[in-house]
Structure prediction request, 324 residues.
Amino acid sequence: MKPILVLFTGGTIASLSSGGIISPDKQRGGYLLDLYRKTSGDNETRFETHSPVHILSENLCFEEWNALISSLCSFDFDKYCGIIITHGSDTLAYTSALIGMLFRHTAIPIVLTASNKPLDERGSNGLFNFTSAVKLIREGRYIGIFTVFEKVYLSTRLLPADTFLDRFSCYGGEEFEGVSEYRLDKPRERIIDPNIKLEHEVLVINPYPNFNYSSVNLSSRPAAVLHTLYHSGTACTSLSHGGERSLISFAKKCKALDIPLYLCGTKGGKADIYESMGEIRDMGVKTIDRISDVAAYVKLVIAYNQQQVNPARIIYSNLFFEML
Prediction:
């Protein structure tokens, strides 16, 4: 059997706790593999390891994503039966979406995984998650990009964990909603060369009561702006507060500056909309429907950091089941 490539990137699964402080430790990667050998009794699976970055994932920026992308692209996937990326849990959903969209065409499984606590601590699920990732690859039933954290998720549907129970969830509710097994046993079309360099920023705005759009500084000229919506597909559009709290006024400002504005959270299709959003629709503001804000953000980052295809093809293609 071909080896499994393991890319260690840091995070809690590769950290030690000392004096109440959790810090990355580069020796934890080897320790994880030793634990796996001892507890699984699996002496057949061969691992090849590499560490493109080693950070706590809350410190993740484009520089680290670029290093991970470049590292993945440097390997010949045909030499491996699968790839495991160990990662911190804080930004796991974002990196999962990134890898899922960039490497949608892969002919082997790529599995991202993490841990809720350092491996030595009671209640840590890191070893379980890693063992599950190895099992998913060795079974050889599916190809594509998945995330394992107590459950198996489609990588592009993972939502960030809640801050109390540290539990992840899935956009759309069910982990594989609407995706039958036969759609996971073959590679997909390659749309772009995944070896891109991320440098152009995408700004994200989340609405909340009394949000003041005048506090948004567009002088940095982001490549695009993603504006999420309330669950009903709405945001404040009232002009009764001088316009500074209205999405309508902000949309006009973006248009004047020639900065693409996208709304995420619209219902799509022929669903009725609230009157608050009627004028926004009439203005022709772009929408990304039936997708999580995490996946929408990553899509825009990819779309506006490549020059191979029209950004619209990336934004409005269902790259790896992210669109319901």
